[in-house]
């Protein structure tokens, strides 16, 4: 699967953050979970990231139970044509702690975060009464929000892959199920599971662990099609590099 930037499939799998999927129309009779993918499935799998590029974008739902008492749920959209996306991120707690809300925008390299408690007051003290959002470089190895943004931006490829590469990589068939009323086949690699619509051959769900965690991150795509992500006005954004002390105060 030839990814943007000429990444190889080996790097794609090893990096964990780079994603793939597959599906087929044939009945799954006489198959058992763990069976190797067929040649037909490998051909669909080789196309699926490129199909995301062709579709242009999708609506996104992400869930991650990153602690026993904390569940992160993110909803929004992504524009694969520009590597941009926006998500409302809500963390709910079983401890009685109030929900934690963030609004994020991201591209291939940077993330813009809003609804940071206390941030607007700190910026007003610094003379930026108009600043509502903090912009900083993606830190995919440390912050979960950034890691998810990186995953999403790697769900598209400029070119299809070679099906033979995917057969050699050891993809297996894990069964059929419905996701948001769409009948899918699920496939597994050493690092992830991938669910693909049987009829439309579109990526419906991707589940993997983040680079620095053992818990699953579940990414669900729906309403595939062109999406345009509108970032906040530039005057409402403060760069972390221009306000390093304030950024550090809020963990950035």
Structural class given helices, strands, pairing? alpha+beta
Give the H and E element order: HEHEEEEEHEHHEEEEEEH
**How many structural units, i.e. domains?**
2
Residue runs with pLDDT of under 50 for 5 or more positions: 1-25
Residue fraction in strands: 25-35%
Secondary structure tally: strands:
13
Please describe the biggest sheet, giving its number of strands, its sense, and whether it closes into a barrel: 13 strands, mixed
Tally of helical runs: 6
Helix content: 10-25%
Mean pLDDT: 88
Shape: elongated
Widest sheet, order of strands: 1-8-9-10-11-12-2-3-4-5-6-7-13
How many angstroms separate the termini? 34 Å
Overall radius of gyration? 19 Å
Q: What assembly state would you assign to the polypeptide chains in this entry?
A: single chain
Description:
With 252 residues, the protein is α+β, with helices and mostly antiparallel strands. The chain folds into two domains: 9-57 and 156-203, no CATH class; 58-152 and 228-249, no CATH class. 21% of the residues lie in helices and 34% in strands. The protein is built from six helices and 13 strands. It has helices spanning 9-14, 39-55, 119-125, 144-153, 163-168, 244-249, and strands spanning 35-36, 57-67, 70-79, 84-93, 100-106, 110-114, 133-137, 172-179, 182-188, 192-197, 203-208, 217-222, 237-239. The protein has a 13-stranded mixed β-sheet. A hairpin with a 2-residue loop joins strand 2 and strand 3 (70-79). The longest helix has 17 residues, at 39-55. The two termini are 34 Å apart. The model is unreliable at 1-25 (pLDDT under 50).
